[in-house]
Amino acid sequence: MRAVIATALCVGVMALSACASAPARTPGTYVSQSEPVYLITEAQADQILVDAMNVEFGTAPIVRVEAPNKGYQATIKFLVDSHQIVATMVPSRGRTADGSIQSGYYFNVTHSGTMPLSGMSRSKRLRERLSEAATAISPSVQSAN
Q1: Strand (E) positions, 5-139?
Q2: E strand or H helix at 73, and its extent?
Q3: How would you write the pLDDT of the chain (145 residues) with one tens digit per residue?
Q4: pTM flag (> 0.85)
Q5: How far apart, in whole angstroms, are the C-alpha atoms of residue 39 and residue 113?
Q6: CA 129 to CA 85: how far, in whole Å?
Q7: 128 burial via Cβ count (<10 Å: 0-12, 13-18, 19+)
Q8: Is the peptide bond before 36 cis (omega within 30 degrees of 0)?
Protein backbone atom coordinates (compact mmCIF):
# COMPACT_ATOMS: atom_id res chain seq x y z
CA MET A 1 0.00 0.00 0.00
CA ARG A 2 2.81 2.33 0.88
CA ALA A 3 4.49 1.71 -2.48
CA VAL A 4 1.25 2.52 -4.32
CA ILE A 5 0.90 5.83 -2.48
CA ALA A 6 4.55 6.73 -3.15
CA THR A 7 4.17 5.86 -6.84
CA ALA A 8 0.97 7.88 -7.14
CA LEU A 9 2.64 10.83 -5.43
CA CYS A 10 5.66 10.68 -7.77
CA VAL A 11 3.42 10.43 -10.84
CA GLY A 12 1.37 13.40 -9.61
CA VAL A 13 4.45 15.55 -9.00
CA MET A 14 5.88 14.68 -12.43
CA ALA A 15 2.57 15.48 -14.14
CA LEU A 16 2.31 18.84 -12.40
CA SER A 17 5.87 19.83 -13.18
CA ALA A 18 5.54 18.78 -16.83
CA CYS A 19 2.33 20.76 -17.29
CA ALA A 20 3.66 23.82 -15.51
CA SER A 21 6.49 24.36 -17.95
CA ALA A 22 5.04 23.15 -21.23
CA PRO A 23 5.34 25.63 -24.10
CA ALA A 24 2.03 26.99 -25.30
CA ARG A 25 0.74 29.22 -28.03
CA THR A 26 -1.70 31.96 -27.43
CA PRO A 27 -5.03 31.25 -29.14
CA GLY A 28 -4.98 32.72 -32.61
CA THR A 29 -1.24 32.18 -33.13
CA TYR A 30 -1.28 28.73 -34.61
CA VAL A 31 0.76 28.72 -37.80
CA SER A 32 -1.40 27.83 -40.76
CA GLN A 33 -2.01 28.71 -44.36
CA SER A 34 -4.49 31.35 -43.20
CA GLU A 35 -2.00 33.23 -40.96
CA PRO A 36 -2.34 36.95 -41.81
CA VAL A 37 0.73 38.42 -43.48
CA TYR A 38 1.61 42.09 -43.18
CA LEU A 39 3.39 43.58 -46.19
CA ILE A 40 6.03 45.34 -44.13
CA THR A 41 9.82 45.40 -44.16
CA GLU A 42 12.07 43.61 -41.71
CA ALA A 43 12.96 46.94 -40.08
CA GLN A 44 9.28 47.82 -39.65
CA ALA A 45 8.48 44.37 -38.20
CA ASP A 46 11.39 44.66 -35.78
CA GLN A 47 10.31 48.14 -34.64
CA ILE A 48 6.74 46.90 -34.11
CA LEU A 49 8.11 44.08 -31.94
CA VAL A 50 10.34 46.42 -29.91
CA ASP A 51 7.54 48.92 -29.29
CA ALA A 52 4.97 46.27 -28.34
CA MET A 53 7.38 44.46 -26.00
CA ASN A 54 8.37 47.72 -24.29
CA VAL A 55 4.74 48.69 -23.72
CA GLU A 56 3.69 45.26 -22.47
CA PHE A 57 6.83 44.42 -20.43
CA GLY A 58 8.36 47.82 -19.70
CA THR A 59 9.79 46.82 -16.32
CA ALA A 60 10.95 43.32 -17.29
CA PRO A 61 14.24 42.65 -19.08
CA ILE A 62 13.71 42.08 -22.82
CA VAL A 63 16.21 39.88 -24.65
CA ARG A 64 16.77 39.58 -28.41
CA VAL A 65 16.33 36.10 -29.93
CA GLU A 66 17.76 35.17 -33.32
CA ALA A 67 16.73 31.58 -34.03
CA PRO A 68 14.68 30.12 -35.53
CA ASN A 69 13.19 33.58 -36.23
CA LYS A 70 14.18 37.03 -35.01
CA GLY A 71 12.25 38.45 -32.11
CA TYR A 72 12.30 39.22 -28.41
CA GLN A 73 11.75 37.39 -25.13
CA ALA A 74 10.51 38.79 -21.84
CA THR A 75 10.41 36.98 -18.52
CA ILE A 76 7.78 37.89 -15.96
CA LYS A 77 8.24 36.81 -12.35
CA PHE A 78 6.16 36.56 -9.21
CA LEU A 79 7.70 35.08 -6.06
CA VAL A 80 9.14 31.72 -7.20
CA ASP A 81 7.14 31.54 -10.44
CA SER A 82 8.30 32.80 -13.81
CA HIS A 83 6.98 32.82 -17.34
CA GLN A 84 8.75 33.45 -20.64
CA ILE A 85 6.91 35.14 -23.51
CA VAL A 86 8.55 35.14 -26.94
CA ALA A 87 7.36 37.22 -29.88
CA THR A 88 8.96 36.63 -33.27
CA MET A 89 8.61 37.99 -36.77
CA VAL A 90 8.37 35.26 -39.38
CA PRO A 91 9.25 36.00 -43.01
CA SER A 92 6.39 35.05 -45.29
CA ARG A 93 4.67 35.90 -48.54
CA GLY A 94 1.22 37.33 -48.91
CA ARG A 95 -1.25 37.47 -51.77
CA THR A 96 -2.66 40.93 -52.45
CA ALA A 97 -6.18 41.65 -53.72
CA ASP A 98 -4.91 41.81 -57.31
CA GLY A 99 -3.36 38.33 -56.95
CA SER A 100 0.28 39.39 -56.82
CA ILE A 101 2.56 37.80 -54.24
CA GLN A 102 4.68 40.06 -52.05
CA SER A 103 7.10 39.53 -49.20
CA GLY A 104 6.09 40.39 -45.68
CA TYR A 105 5.98 39.11 -42.11
CA TYR A 106 3.59 37.58 -39.65
CA PHE A 107 4.02 37.59 -35.90
CA ASN A 108 4.16 34.57 -33.64
CA VAL A 109 3.74 34.70 -29.86
CA THR A 110 4.51 31.74 -27.59
CA HIS A 111 4.77 31.40 -23.84
CA SER A 112 5.95 28.86 -21.28
CA GLY A 113 6.50 28.73 -17.57
CA THR A 114 4.76 28.36 -14.24
CA MET A 115 2.29 31.25 -14.60
CA PRO A 116 -0.08 29.99 -17.32
CA LEU A 117 -3.01 32.32 -16.62
CA SER A 118 -0.95 35.49 -16.44
CA GLY A 119 1.29 34.32 -19.28
CA MET A 120 -1.64 33.60 -21.57
CA SER A 121 -3.33 36.95 -20.94
CA ARG A 122 -0.08 38.89 -21.45
CA SER A 123 0.64 36.91 -24.62
CA LYS A 124 -2.81 37.64 -25.97
CA ARG A 125 -2.45 41.36 -25.27
CA LEU A 126 0.96 41.36 -26.92
CA ARG A 127 -0.45 39.64 -30.01
CA GLU A 128 -3.23 42.24 -30.22
CA ARG A 129 -0.68 45.08 -29.93
CA LEU A 130 1.42 43.56 -32.72
CA SER A 131 -1.61 43.14 -34.97
CA GLU A 132 -2.85 46.70 -34.37
CA ALA A 133 0.58 48.25 -35.00
CA ALA A 134 1.20 46.23 -38.15
CA THR A 135 -2.29 46.96 -39.50
CA ALA A 136 -1.65 50.68 -39.05
CA ILE A 137 1.23 50.35 -41.54
CA SER A 138 -0.21 47.73 -43.90
CA PRO A 139 -3.50 45.86 -43.82
CA SER A 140 -3.02 42.12 -43.50
CA VAL A 141 -3.30 39.90 -46.56
CA GLN A 142 -3.82 36.18 -46.98
CA SER A 143 -0.74 33.99 -46.79
CA ALA A 144 0.58 32.75 -50.12
CA ASN A 145 2.70 29.99 -48.55
Answers
A1: 24-25, 37-38, 62-65, 71-78, 81-95, 101-113
A2: strand 71-78
A3: 676 565 556 545 444 444 444 444 444 444 445 678 999 999 999 999 999 999 998 888 899 999 889 999 998 888 988 899 999 999 999 988 888 899 999 999 999 888 888 888 889 999 999 999 999 999 888 888 7
A4: no
A5: 32
A6: 14
A7: middle
A8: no
